[in-house]
Amino acid sequence: MATHSAPDPAPAPPLAPVPVATDPTQPRRDTRGSIVDAAVALIADRGFSATSVDDIAAAAGVAKGSIYYNFGSKTALFEAVIVEGVDRLTAALRASVDGLDGPAAIEAIVTELLVQVQAHPDFAKLVVAEVFRTGRDWQHSIRQVREESMAVFADVVRATWPDRDPSLTAAVIFGATLVAGLEWLAFQPHRTAADVRSAVLATVLPA
Question: Of 40, 51, 138, which is closest to residue 89 (Cα–Cα)?
């Protein structure tokens, strides 16, 4: 008598893919970052007044409305550019002198500022060109974040030379290092970072 084998079991349905958590703010952060990068490059090259929202949108590859959505206005965008850039610089300067004092701290903070100028040359040019202008809408906010950054230099000066004016001496060291870094990148690129560092330190540190 013929026997009938049991039918093969139906194949198991494919497993559903495991859901991957996504960050709904990521696209906005990417767009925001592109806008900030474009604004820094254009304003450093042309100046704030000569750079339009249309220019920034085109360079960032975004719609003009994205700039207003993320920042509200060109002025607010520029303020965000400065605040974020100075915050980044301040954090790097603080980290560079952590645990140091005296001439070693001066050497470390000068070195780190040169590193930051080399890593972010457009932002450094923008600072020189725009931050010291008066009568701008963003002046109050810029003054606050600038004071935070300069306070790192002032603390180092105060610990190294107690008899010196910490605020003014900090400004001298910051300015000398910033301008020397830009001079290096723009006009003397054949120099090494060590050359520039040595020149600045020879100027600001007593023999």
Answer: 40
The pTM score is: 0.81
Distance of CA 43 to the CA centre of its chain: 14
- Whether residue 66 is found in the same domain as residue 142: no
Cβ neighbours for 148, distance < 8 A, ≥ 6 positions apart: 86, 87, 90
Number of domains the chain contains: 2
What is the tens place of the pLDDT at every residue in 49-95?
Answer: 899 999 999 999 999 999 999 999 999 999 899 889 989 999 999 99
**Distant-in-sequence, close-in-space partners of 69: CB < 8 Å, separation ≥ 6:** none
Q: What are phi and psi of 117, to 5 degrees?
A: -65, -40
Q: Do 51 and 110 belong to one domain?
A: no
93 is a domain residue: yes
Regarding predicted confidence, which is higher, 175 or 143? 175
For the chain, give the secondary structure using H, E and C. CCCCCCCCCCCCCCCCCCCCCCCCCHHHHHHHHHHHHHHHHHHHHHCCCCCCHHHHHHHHCCCHHHHHHHHCCHHHHHHHHHHHHHHHHHHHHHHHHCCCCHHHHHHHHHHHHHHHHHHCHHHHHHHHHHHCCCCCCCHHHHHHHHHHHHHHHHHHHHHHCCCCCHHHHHHHHHHHHHHHHHHHHHHCCCCCHHHHHHHHHHHHCCC
> 84-113: buried (b, 16+ CB within 10 Å) or exposed (e) per residue?
bbbeebbebbbebbeeeeeeebbbbbbbbb
